[in-house]
């Protein structure tokens, strides 16, 4: 994270890194309904992976939300060296998982990233909100476990 901190501002100015990190951690929270979806997918043994362009700061997200309870941080651009929407990033994921692209459901809020997933044969869903996502996943045959308490 120190390397990213050095490059945080183009002009290299100094800043309170610990204060920035604390502020960022305070701001992270689950989007309404998303933790329930993740919990349910985990209960039904679906394999879920992060596929993100986020820099090493993703560790702050993990620190706050404990997303690794539900998913693996397998495909982070800062560790893989590829970025969405490069088709190479999607192909790397399929290769790494040793799966048919058509068996992967890629979810993103940006249409350009979904189009890239579709171009390599993945199924793509645009995230709008948790309710729409759950309906979209159900229409693809994804089964949801009853949600008791995600935490």
UniProtKB/TrEMBL annotation:
Transmembrane portions of the chain: none
Coiled-coil ranges (or none): none
Protein's UniProt name: Uncharacterized protein
């Amino acid at each position: 994270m120190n390397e990213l901190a050095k490059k945080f501002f183009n002009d290299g100015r100094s800043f309170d890194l610990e204060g920035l990190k604390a502020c960022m951690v305070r701001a992270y929270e689950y989007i309404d309904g998303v933790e329930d979806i993740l919990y349910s997918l985990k209960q039904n043994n679906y394999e879920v992976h992060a596929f993100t362009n986020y820099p090493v700061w993703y560790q702050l997200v993990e620190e706050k939300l404990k997303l690794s309870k539900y998913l693996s941080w397998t495909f982070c651009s800062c560790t893989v060296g590829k970025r969405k929407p490069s088709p190479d990033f999607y192909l790397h994921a399929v290769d790494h998982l040793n799966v048919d692209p058509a068996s992967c459901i890629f979810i993103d809020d940006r249409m350009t990233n979904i189009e890239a997933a579709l171009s390599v044969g993945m199924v793509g869903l645009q995230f709008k909100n948790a309710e729409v996502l759950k309906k979209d996943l159900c229409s693809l045959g994804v089964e949801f476990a009853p949600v008791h308490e995600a935490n």
